Amino acid sequence: MKIFLTIIFLAVCIAMIVIVLMQEGKSAGLGSIGGIGESYWGKNKSRSMEGNLVKFTRILAAAFLVIALLLNMIPDKTKVTTPATTAETEVAAAMTEAAEALAETEA
Fold this sequence. Notes:
- The chain has helices at residues 2-22, 40-43, 49-73, 86-106.
- It contains 4 helices and no strands.
- The protein is mainly alpha-helical.
């Protein structure tokens, strides 16, 4: 499940990068001074390709956040605990012997 979500997450990331790079800048330039920016194309911008890109960007951003939260909540099952090394085993055995010897001397 986590691998599937990771693949979907990467696809959403790449799609969002491409869509953001395809968008035009928001500055109207000198056209905003005389009100030229509010033309027919400015009023119907939501129906244009630019409007669709903005809509898809919002959808992909929401998907990005949801998938990121899901990936963070799923526990990692591939984490393997390493067995104790021989040095750790020898130290533990020496400590056990020392504790036993101390217990015998006190008794």
